[in-house]
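Reader question, answered in our methods column.
A reader sent in the components of a multi-part assembly and asked whether the whole thing could be modeled at once rather than chain by chain. We filled in our standard form and ran it. Here is what they sent:
COMPLEX SIZE: two components
ENTRIES:
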Amino acid sequence: MSGPVALVIEDSPTMRQLIGVALKRVSDLDLVEADNGAIGLELLAKQSFNLILLDLNMPVMGGIVFLERLREIPSPPPVIVITTESAKEDVDRALALGASAYVMKPLKATDLVRAVIHVLGR
Amino acid sequence: MGEPSSDEDVASVTQIDAFLNTLRRSAEIAQELIRSGAQQAERIRSLEGDLASARLRQSFLETELTKIRNLLGEGGPDLAQLAMLEELVEDQNVLAQLFVTSDRLARVESVTDAVAVAVEIMHNLVGAHRYGVFVATERGPIVVAPAEARYRVKDGEQRELLTQTLAAPAVDKPAQLKVGTTPPLCVPLRLGKRVVGALLIAELVPQVGGTLGRLQHELLSLLAERLASSMCLGAFHQERIGRGEPWTAVASSLASITERP
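And here is the structure of the entire assembly that came back:
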């Protein structure tokens, strides 16, 4: 992998596939998938990532707990939250825990691509 | 004439002093006038510089204005083209979601797989907040998804709408399935010429605006056409794998095709 690598933490295979299709427009971006926050943390311990795309509502370890744990890691990658929760407090909590941006489900490919390009500083 | 008196001398000296003062004052005034003239000349030069700069700016703006007029008036990216571009971006978004939906429905390996895919699509892509996936049984329609009660329609909710949808001929497009419709709405699940179930949406998430948008319309149309056959595919796959012969039936069918005269 020569380009930036994004870790997609999302329990829905459909969403993971849709994210993959949408992000084909971001050249050189490779994706690694995890279906909950705990697996995401395991992958972070083994590999470095340039970006994390994070669902909030997941079994085993949800996005908020993941963000709390991520703060214990020195220089963590930026996080874009993807969530169905329209409640502002969930998004506010994620942003307070260090998330860089958020995108709401139902997912619009263009919104996601814009957020990724912005966070990667391209 | 005699010599002037002392008083006359004093008067003459005073007059001379006054004259000299007047001359000095005149000289000062002349110097001030010269200085003022120089300042005015400087100011005029500065104003001329400003005027030249303003003329350049005016010229630049006129050129830019001409360019904009040309773009708007002579085949540039006019508003109609921008609107078309937006539509293309939206088309791409819809196609990406339809592709993923179709692909996921085609890969199921069990009935529960098919139901799980339907739930993911309803929840994550359509933006259904409270809904039900119903299948028709001999005992009447039963709700099979979603599992989480907070997202599931209540027992008996929209029963009349559900009954009407299940009773309608499969060829009929449901009246509710139009862009801009506000829930509740019910879409029949078709299997060939039969209606074998329904998707009932009581509420959409606020992000989709509370009404059926183009994306939701396309996704529900696809689900209505494919979900039942995807369930059948899942059942077939499950049954054959259970018997250890996932490909036997298909291979037999293919063999019988080639054996036909």
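What stands out: The first helix of chain B runs from residue 6 to 73. The first strand of chain B starts at residue 128 and ends at 137.
Send us your own complexes using the same form.
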